[in-house]
Specification:
The complex is a heterodimer of chains A (about 425) and B (about 425). Chain A has about 425 residues and is an alpha/beta fold. Chain A contains 13 helices and 16 strands. In chain A, the strands form three sheets. In chain A, strands 1, 2, 5, 6, 7, 9, 10, 11, 12, 15 and 16 form an eleven-stranded mixed sheet that branches. In chain A, strands 3-4-8 form a three-stranded mixed sheet. In chain A, helix 3 (about 80-95) packs parallel to helix 7 and helix 10 (about 285-300) packs across helix 11 (about 320-335). The radius of gyration of chain A is 22 Å and the shape is globular. In chain B, helix 11 links the parallel strand 7 and strand 8 (about 340-345). In chain B, helix 4 runs parallel beside helix 6 (about 150-160) and helix 10 (about 290-300) packs across helix 11. The chains are: A alpha/beta (about 425), B alpha/beta (about 425). Strand 6 of chain A pairs antiparallel with strand 3 of chain B, so a sheet runs across the interface.
Chain lengths: ~425, ~425
């Protein structure tokens, strides 16, 4: 049983990518065909991948410029800065910055739901160095007696907070007075998709009057690259080449969107609407089936036919097998229909938890502008795989009247989601 | 909107991995808190933890299918066994349900940061050699952070059970399991699935984990017997006692349960969540966020405060939580707060951190199903700021038509679940 209540208006957007701060910066970069992927000097000596690792890092503003007090700022990593910037911009665009709890908005913090997706935060080993050196025994191990007696006392007391991803989430809530329904999902793109779904449902079920959905990437570092190599997201034997289809490249960024019911959004400019969503899990296999099922559920909720879709923003993570499964699932659900296709990861890198919200906002902008931008890095779709040759990625901005856009998400372990969005 | 039933339950805690045994021990007010034995803890300034015994772990490895029994990370092992128990308790087998209509939602916490994962790459004078470390990643501990992502339990349960519907992993600190269960209920209500296995799993009983709670000043270092350490609502409470384990419940739509003639333990009928937005390091002392969580859950259940007989409290035994939770309960229940029975499972199993909401919900469901509530152990000298009926030290038989279970996360995320009798 799938039911579809009224569509939900997107009234605020915050985007922070390697292109800079704001949806405009990301959109203009995409339309210009720019890629921010570049060899990463910090990772140059990293042995598991022989060639230079490409990443797309971004430089978020400092916490003080985002309004955080000095004490709170001490606990914030760059992932928190990115998330704060994105949420701040989404609230501002919706006319709620400084207005949550304010008379102007007529909205209290209790009425604002907040859901987000983000991965684990890598621990700050620098804070452990002294403790380990104090407790070390011959052979390189640690004497636990020495560690608890002396070593531990050399670890900064607030060290644990920095590696809790919920610390970042709660700091954002404190900063902006968000006190309503909430949830924090982990670890990858599927986590941000869950956040958007639950934000939408909290509105539809009357649990909130406005709902923020956000996602943020991990900070790119040797540690995060090592983790994703271990997980198979990155591949040490990958052939250098363009994403999608080559080697996924990590990016940094965050995005947030503010959802309001049609009534609550009255009088406000809208970026567009989230009309339907779906999700499915591949389990031990059949990733294509999970892509198909999630897209089919999104169509059903949105009460649209596949033929109404003018553009598909694919997950396009750059992993060859997953890209092929995505194409296969897409072909299944679209039947003979062939919409245009866009992949953003060749421009901004793979943002994991940050990616789905960026893609949703880009989809809304594409509808508003009537333009499908090119997909940086996609040069020969389907060249190695005839199953993908139906994917038409424009090689320059192409005018298109877009009635509906499908946004696809693939997460870890085969968790897939899809969103059907419509124009303002 | 579908009614949501609890048709299967499984848990692993310091009171055991058998539901009936754990419940009878909880009713008897037994403590599962004992000296830490899973690592050399001679100098650890903490007298005990709610640790799952080595024998229990060996037994559950024997119960699990071969492909899962070799799992190295304790929390994942606990999750798998609790899921196995919950599915069996519901009278189901892996692969028996419609895969697209069956999902998994689990709450979990920090992965296990092991000193062995840092120490070899820290020199005598130099800092952490990240590049060398990354190149030697295979040398990190197989059950440590770098090899065990947060969604591992969710994914393994889904694969084992053959579930291909919605899956999600919540990491909302101590509210994570409560949120996973609450959102699991919503998924069924909105018709997205018929069955959700949901709950939480966590283990912070390892050197870095214990150090974390000491550094934050949250853990009790009282030099007293382990079984007396955790003292929720008591004047001499001195902090939380870390526990470990998992709880998994099988939520099922009433229509689906009726079709297969399933027995329901209880009905999950309400979920509320809120945020304090107060401080990262402390709960709102006025309990405003906690009160909203309870009020929203009651509203969601369509119940009035007067219909609730029992509160399974978050009840950590910390100086800050217990009076704030008491205030919040009074705020929501008003004059009827004094008639409530309130107890803390943590007084016996410790604080299971991200997982805490799951076994505590199971105890709550059993209270509703059997009209009996477990006590708050070690409550000898009530704090004047904690002046409700906390069912001190002895269980109580009483009518429990409905109950709530609270979980409040570090940083200010609050969750409440409402349980009612199955029809």
């Amino acid at each position: 049983m799938i039911t579809m209540p009224a569509a939900l208006a997107v009234t605020g957007a915050g985007v922070f990518t390697a292109a800079g701060r704001g949806l405009d910066a990301a959109w203009e970069a995409l339309c210009a065909g720019r890629s921010f992927l570049a060899p990463d000097d910090e990772l140059a000596g990293f042995s598991p991948i022989e060639r230079a690792i490409e990443t797309a890092r971004c430089a978020p503003p400092g916490p003080e410029s985002l309004g955080a007090d000095r004490r709170a700022a001490r606990l914030m990593g760059r992932h928190t800065h990115m998330l704060l910037a994105a949420v701040q911009d989404a609230l501002e665009e919706a006319g709620l910055l400084g207005g949550v709890d304010g008379e102007a908005s007529g909205l209290s913090g209790e009425e604002m739901a907040f859901f987000a997706g983000m991965d684990s935060v890598d621990p700050g080993e620098a804070d452990l160095v002294s403790a380990v050196q104090t407790s070390r025994v011959d052979g390189g191990g640690v004497d636990l007696g020495q560690f608890f007696d002396e070593g531990m006392t050399q670890i900064p007391p607030l060290w644990p907070l920095g590696m809790l991803n919920s610390t970042a989430f709660c700091q954002v809530a404190i900063q902006f007075g968000l006190r309503g329904e909430n949830g924090l999902f982990s670890p990858g793109a599927e986590a941000a998709a869950q956040a958007v779904i639950e934000a939408a449902e909290s509105l539809r079920e009357g649990k909130a009057r406005a709902a923020l959905a956000a996602g943020v990437s991990p900070v790119v570092s040797v540690r995060s690259v090592a983790r994703y190599l271990k997980r198979g997201l990155l591949k040490s034997d990958a052939v250098p080449g363009a994403a999608p289809g080559g080697n996924p490249a990590l990016g940094e960024g965050a995005a947030a969107l503010l959802l309001e019911s049609e009534d609550a959004a009255a009088g406000k400019p809208r970026l567009g609407y989230i009309r339907g969503w779906g999700r499915a899990t591949a389990g031990d296999g059949d990733l294509a089936g999970a892509v198909r099922d999630s897209a089919a559920a999104a169509f059903q909720r949105a009460e649209i036919e596949p033929g109404q879709v003018g553009l598909v923003v694919v997950h396009g993570g750059g992993n060859l097998e997953e890209d092929e499964a995505e194409a296969e699932g897409l072909a299944d659900v679209l039947g003979g229909h062939r919409p245009l296709v866009l992949a953003t990861k060749g421009a901004f890198g793979h943002l994991l938890g940050g990616g789905p919200v960026v893609d949703l906002l880009i989809a809304l902008r594409a509808m508003a502008e009537g333009i499908v931008p090119p997909s940086p890095g996609v040069e020969t779709p389907g060249a190695k795989n005839p199953g993908r040759d139906f994917l038409e990625f424009p090689d320059s901005p192409r005018a298109a009247r877009l009635e509906s856009v499908l946004v696809l998400v693939q997460g870890f372990d085969g968790a897939c989601a899809a969103f059907a969005v419509g124009p303002a | 909107m579908s009614e949501v039933l609890i048709t299967g339950m499984g848990m692993v805690t310091a009171l055991g991995a058998d539901l009936e045994v754990a419940w009878s021990r909880a009713l008897a007010g037994e403590s599962g808190v004992r000296p830490v034995s899973s690592f050399e803890a001679g100098s650890l300034p903490i007298a005990g933890a709610g640790e799952v015994s080595k024998d229990e772990i060996e037994a559950l490895r024997e119960r699990l299918p071969d492909e899962l029994a070799s799992e190295g990370e304790r929390r994942v092992l606990f999750a798998l066994d609790a899921a196995r128990s919950a599915l069996a308790d519901a009278g189901l087998s892996p692969g028996e349900t419609d895969p697209r209509r069956s999902g998994v939602m689990m709450g979990t916490g920090l992965s296990t940061y092991r000193l062995e994962d840092f120490a070899p790459w820290i020199g005598e004078r130099e800092g952490f050699d990240a590049v060398r470390f990354a190149g030697e990643l295979e040398k990190t501990h197989p059950s440590g952070y770098f090899q065990n992502p947060p969604e591992r339990a969710t994914s393994l349960i889904a694969k084992w059970a053959g579930f291909r519907g919605p899956t999600a992993t919540l990491t909302s600190a101590c509210a994570a399991a409560g949120q996973a269960i609450g959102l699991g209920m919503r998924v069924i209500r909105r018709g997205e699935a018929d069955i959700i296995l949901c709950g939480g799993a966590d283990s912070m009983i390892h050197p870095v984990g214990m150090a974390i709670f000491l550094l934050l000043g949250a853990a009790t270092t009282a030099p007293i017997a382990p079984e007396a350490l955790c003292r929720p609502f008591d004047r001499r409470r001195a902090g939380l006692v870390v526990g470990e384990g998992a709880g998994v419940i099988l939520l099922e739509s009433s229509e689906h349960a009726a079709r297969r003639g399933a027995h329901a333990h209880a009905r999950l009928c309400g979920y509320g969540s809120s945020m304090d937005a107060y401080q990262v390091t402390a709960p709102d002392p006025k309990g405003r966020g906690a009160a909203r969580s309870m009020s929203e859950a009651l509203r969601d259940a369509g119940m009035t405060p007067g219909e609730i007989a029992y509160v399974n409290a978050h009840g950590t035994g910390t100086k800050l939580n217990d009076p704030a939770e008491t205030l919040a309960i009074k705020k929501v229940f008003g004059p009827s707060a004094g008639k409530l029975a309130v107890s803390s499972s943590k007084s016996m199993i410790g604080h299971l951190i991200a997982a805490c909401g799951a076994p505590e919900l199971i105890f709550t469901a059993l209270s509703v199903a059997r009209d009996e509530v477990h006590p708050t152990r070690n409550l000898e000298s009530p704090d004047r700021l904690c002046d409700l009926d906390y069912v001190p030290n002895e269980s109580r038989k009483m009518p429990v038509p409905a109950a709530i279970s609270n979980s409040f996360g570090f940083g200010g995320q609050n969750t409440t679940l409402v349980v009612g009798k199955a029809a």
